[in-house]
Amino acid sequence: MRETSGAGVAAPERPSATGTGPAPTAKPALRRAQFADLDARTWHDLLRLRIDVFVVEQACPYHELDGRDVDPGTEHLWVPDSTGPAAYLRVVHDEDGNVRIGRVCTRQTTRHYGLASVLVKDVLARYPSRQIVLAAQSYLVPFYLRHGFHRCGEDFLDDGIPHVPMAREPDTPGR
């Protein structure tokens, strides 16, 4: 596991302005690892966050373990706090050369602090010359538009949840 430079833990023990969780006071830590580098406890905690958000909170039973987590090129990125992973996303490398962001989630008590943005910005910074694609839940389209993504196809349902295919083109000189 690697932690990015300038990291600080993002969860002091004081209530937030919204009362939903701890308010970050420092630049959040960001961790990144491939499956083979994750210890059992960390993998459990990451998977629990994904299941808490996608299966339990969104009431959407689906096959969370799709086989992509263990691919050698797959990266797991998360922001930890004192109680475990506060936000997570997965990066996979598609056969067509695209970088694919998926499984973006934030623990309910740590939303609205920009933690998902920290993760997305890290991916954008590390893959500036590659097209980055994702399937955004429809209500999150404005979030991804702010990060330079655009719609690249027709809306669709994935396990009954409306999604929008989105892409961010590779950086070009002068952009």
List segments where confidence is low: pLDDT < 50 over at least 5 consecutive residues.
2-19
User: Judging by the overall fold, what is the CATH architecture?
Assistant: 3-Layer(aba) Sandwich
Largest sheet: 9 strands, mixed
Number of DSSP-assigned strands = 9
List the helices and strands and how they pair.
Elements: E1 2-3, E2 31-33, H1 40-57, E3 75-81, E4 84-93, E5 99-106, H2 115-126, E6 132-137, H3 141-146, E7 150-151, E8 156-158, E9 161-168
Parallel strand pairs: 5-6
Antiparallel strand pairs: 1-2, 2-3, 3-4, 4-5, 6-9, 7-9, 8-9
Keywords:
single chain, 175 residues, alpha+beta, Aminopeptidase, 9-stranded mixed sheet, 3 helices, 21% helix
Please provide a written account of the structure.
The structure is a single chain. The protein has 175 residues and is of the alpha+beta class. It has a single domain (28-168), classed as Aminopeptidase (3-Layer(aba) Sandwich), CATH 3.40.630. It has 3 helices and 9 strands; from the N terminus they run E-E-H-E-E-E-H-E-H-E-E-E. The chain has helices at 40-57, 115-126, 141-146; strands at residues 2-3, 31-33, 75-81, 84-93, 99-106, 132-137, 150-151, 156-158, 161-168. Strands 1, 2, 3, 4, 5, 6, 7, 8 and 9 form a 9-stranded mixed sheet that branches. Helix 2 links the parallel strand 5 and strand 6. The longest helix has 18 residues, at 40-57. It is globular and about 40 Å long. The relative contact order is 0.14. Mean pLDDT is 85; it is low at 2-19.
